[in-house]
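Researcher: Go.
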Amino acid sequence: NPAAEGSSHDVGILQITPIYAREASRISGTDYSHADARDIDKALAMYEIVQGHYNPDHNQAEAIRRHNPGAGPGYAAEVRRNLQLVERYEAVRAAILSKQ
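Model: Structure:
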């Protein structure tokens, strides 16, 4: 949900915080604002910038830790479950679309 708002000033589909947007700007030399986190394409771009800088191997566990370093112990497991749901959804969607 691009309009989602969390309890720590985190917004958008990736729940990006103001400091995360500033870090994406610093790394890339661009000028992302926190409001850009509500734009799906810009949110994904910020995520790729920060992860690419700090996690160039795209290690999933490291990506989860870096994206939300203050999260509790169950957070990583919840993210992995959600990723599996998305992967299953996308596989079914692709199968349906291929039959059309």
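Model: Residues 53 and 96 are 36 Å apart (CA to CA).
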